[in-house]
TrEMBL record:
Homohexamer. PANTHER family: URIDYLATE KINASE, URIDYLATE KINASE PUMPKIN, CHLOROPLASTIC. InterPro entries: AceGlu_kinase-like_sf, Asp/Glu/Uridylate_kinase, Uridylate_kinase, Uridylate_kinase_bac. This is Uridylate kinase. The gene is pyrH. GO terms for molecular function: ATP binding; UMP kinase activity. Belongs to the UMP kinase family. GO terms for biological process: 'de novo' CTP biosynthetic process; UDP biosynthetic process. It catalyses: UMP + ATP = UDP + ADP. It comes from Candidatus Coatesbacteria bacterium 4484_99. It is an enzyme of class 2 (transferase).
Length: 237
């Protein structure tokens, strides 16, 4: 059974996607494959916004090891998303994809400041805004930033690409009998405190009725399948 094909999406990916299966910070083969998929999607007429995390550069466990508190850790993480966004946006231009990086925190002449109307104008022209800096505030995750931007940019669905198939009623790595959940409503997600999406993000999505799809973006072809309406991953609504 197919889902309704969206006309406009926000795709949120972790920084780990950019590092792919390599030992380094960036995997050119993975980024190239990702950009090809983005080009296919846009050629099908789907409008795309991108929001990338910074986990390939800075990890929470590393920040803890360094003894940093939450505020400086979040500040460093926001800067990491800007670095990733600049690199990803540059890669998109290699595929003749019109794109522009917008940051929620001011970084001088390096990146344009995020203003919803400017991002919307780019989308309407067929371009892709690459959204950096999270929400611009500490204590908020990039999941929450993705929902916030999805609401501001009037997308049909927020799509989160991860390393997992979607949502399970247990840990499939530890419990072979754990069942995959193809669809769940917001309140059930919150009541069960599942971990694939930040609670604050899901609460905001519920308030503004922003549907979410969580899927494994590392599996070849999945991104295009999700955007074309195939039932890949978990649908939260």
């Amino acid at each position: 059974m197919a889902r309704e094909r969206p006309g406009r999406i926000l795709l949120k990916v972790s920084g780990e996607l950019l590092s792919g299966f390599s030992d380094g910070v960036y995997d050119d083969r993975m980024i190239t494959s990702f950009c090809r998929d983005i080009k296919k999607i846009t050629e099908e007429g789907v409008q795309v916004s991108l929001l990338v995390g910074g986990g390939n550069i800075l990890r929470g466990s590393e920040m803890e090891r360094l003894g940093l508190g939450r505020v400086p850790s979040d500040q460093a993480g926001m800067m990491a998303t800007i670095v990733n966004s600049i690199i990803l946006q540059n890669w998109l231009t290699r595929f003749n994809i019109m794109s522009q990086t917008f940051s929620s925190i001011p970084v001088g002449f390096l990146v344009d400041e995020y203003v919803p109307q400017r991002a919307l104008e780019l989308i309407e022209k067929g371009g892709i805004p690459v959204l950096a800096g999270g929400t611009g505030n500490t204590y908020f995750t990039t999941d929450t930033a993705a929902i916030l931007r999805s609401i501001e940019l009037n997308v049909d669905v927020m799509v989160k690409g991860t390393k997992v198939r979607g949502l399970y009623d247990g840990d499939p790595m530890r419990d072979p009998s754990a069942n995959f959940i193809p669809h769940i409503d917001y309140q059930s997600y919150l009541d069960n405190r599942y971990g694939v999406m930040d609670m604050t993000a899901v609460m905001m999505a519920m308030q503004y009725r922003m549907p979410i799809i969580v899927f494994n973006i590392f599996e070849l072809g999945n991104l295009c399948k999700v955007v074309m309406g195939e039932e890949i991953g978990t649908y939260i609504s």
